[in-house]
């Protein structure tokens, strides 16, 4: 009967719209912290779809006060059990130092020691001279990824049973890898492939034992 199909669709729509009121977590119970870069398609990178995760993006994919605020809310109150951090190669946050960017703002007449970093919370002020650190530029994407996982792991606001991992999205290959695990480093030179140069080297496959 048609009314059954209609009622089914209405129920599905209600369950989707009222998820928070009904205490339904996102499908994968997942919170993602990632860079805002347009070359990083989160759903495609992780193989997830609509409704699967809470996604937080900022410049660099870095643990900031608002990232902690969102991570705390999703893990403490919205049923999230896993966190994935995604940083990426050729990130804009590696193209200039915080001091350099601060100098440009200063030259535009902006007093970075006086600006409000959260206009809705004027009580939140940066101490003098901290602005360039607050921008959080970095020099090594693998290192920064590992650091973000540690920062989240050590946050008192995130439960200890939440599983946290970090990955690098390579914009050049459009694929994920683990920090410091570049496949390209293992295939481009003979030394990287640990090429054998003596006759007495063990064969790659242990076929000798089969002949005996
Ligand atoms: Zn980036």
Number of helix segments? Answer: 8
What is the CATH superfamily label of the domain at 30-96 and 137-178? Carbonic anhydrase
Structure class: alpha/beta
User: Which small-molecule ligands are present, each listed once?
Assistant: zinc ion
Please describe the biggest sheet, giving its number of strands, its sense, and whether it closes into a barrel: 5 strands, mixed
- What is the H-and-E element order? HHEHEHEHHHEEH
The first-to-last residue Cα distance is 72 Å
Low-confidence stretches: none
Would you state the CATH class of the domain at 30-96 and 137-178?
Answer: Alpha Beta
Relative helix content = 25-40%
What is the strand tally?
A: 5
What does this structure look like?
The protein has a domain of 109 residues: Carbonic anhydrase (Beta-carbonic Anhydrase, Chain A, 3-Layer(aba) Sandwich), CATH 3.40.1050. 33% of the residues lie in helices and 14% in strands. The model has no long low-confidence stretch (mean pLDDT 93). With 212 residues, the chain is α/β, with parallel strands linked by helices. The longest helix has 16 residues. The N and C termini lie far apart (72 Å). It binds zinc ion (ZN). Zinc ion binds next to loops.
